[in-house]
Amino acid sequence: MAEQATNKSESALKAEEISLEMMKFIAVQTGYGKSSGSTAGFGAKGANTPEVHAEALLELFQRCLKVVKAD
Asked: What would the pLDDT profile of 4-53 be if each residue is shown by its tens digit?
């Protein structure tokens, strides 16, 4: 039983790591959440404060995590 819990824990961690890498790639490639406007329709409009930028990145991470867990 403990082995199953460890496997689930490792699986969740792996999904989070993959999601983080995906989020970083998307953010760097598209400028997601930056205040310089949208890039190809992917930027968060009006993201001119660090708080808004951080919120946009957290939202992107959640979206990536949802996609990774759907597999």
From this structure: 667 778 888 899 999 999 999 999 999 887 765 545 555 545 546 889 88
Look up residue 71 and give its two tokens: 């597999």
Greatest distance between any 2 Cα atoms in the chain: 51
CA 22/CA 65 separation, integer angstroms: 9
Domain that residue 66 falls in: 2-70
Number of domains in the chain: 1
* String of DSSP letters for 43-65: SPTT--SHHHHHHHHHHHHHHHH
The tokens for 18 are 């993959």
pTM assigned to the model: 0.68
Beta carbons of 23 and 67 less than 8 angstroms apart: no
